[in-house]
Amino acid sequence: EWVARHSEAQFLLKTDDDVYLRPSPIFDRLREKPPVQYSWGYWDYISPVPREEADHFFNSFEDYPFNVFAPYPRGVVRVLSMDVVRLLAEAGREGRLRMIFGDDPCIGVHLRQLLFDSVKPLPSLTV
């Protein structure tokens, strides 16, 4: 939320702390992309929802009623355009985002909500 309110950047890059990042190739790629409705990363498209209570990322059917998570960019490295970041922050402030266990799948659930939410939805999302 802080970044959404205080940054004039076009994109937000998030990476795990154990990643060696070479910024130049990423910046070169981003220069080619319009800074709107954009998400980039290593996407997981068919990740099953952990249902065993002993699992660290356990989600009950009440938490998340589907068997497979919405597609999500894995945490190694991901980029969101700032318009998407701001929409996520706004939806979070308004209490419209479903919270689940697992930060990576959670961002996919939130992006799906932005795509299909009846309040200020994104018409599309480039991945």
Write the layout of secondary structure elements.
Elements: H1 2-6, E1 11-15, H2 23-31, E2 39-44, E3 72-81, H3 82-93, H4 103-116
Antiparallel strand pairs: 1-3, 2-3
Q: Care to give the gist of this entry?
A:
With 127 residues, this protein is an alpha+beta fold. It is 31% helix and 17% strand. It has a 3-stranded antiparallel β-sheet.
Molecular structure report:
The protein has a three-stranded antiparallel β-sheet. It has one domain (2-116). It is globular. It is of the alpha+beta class. It has helices at 2-6, 23-31, 82-93, 103-116; strands spanning 11-15, 39-44, 72-81. It is found in: Golgi apparatus membrane. Its EC number is 2.4.1.-. One of its GO terms (cellular component) is Golgi membrane. Belongs to the glycosyltransferase 31 family. InterPro entries: Glyco_trans_31.
Key attributes of the depicted protein:
single chain; 127 residues; alpha+beta; three-stranded antiparallel beta sheet; Hexosyltransferase; signal-anchor; Glyco_trans_31; hexosyltransferase activity; membrane
Which sequence of SSEs, written as H and E, runs from N to C?
HEHEEHH
Mean pLDDT: 89
Q: How do the strands of the widest beta sheet line up side by side?
A: 1-3-2
Portion of residues in beta strands equals: 15-25%
Which stretches are poorly predicted, pLDDT < 50 over at least 5 residues? none
Rg (C-alpha, Å): 15 Å
**Assembly context of the chains:** single chain
Question: Roughly how much helix do the residues carry, as a percent range?
Answer: 25-40%
For the record, the count of structural domains works out to: 1
Task: Count helical runs.
Answer: 4
Subcellular location: Golgi apparatus membrane
Protein name: Hexosyltransferase
Enzyme class: transferase
Keywords: Glycosyltransferase, Golgi apparatus, Membrane, Signal-anchor, Transferase, Transmembrane, Transmembrane helix
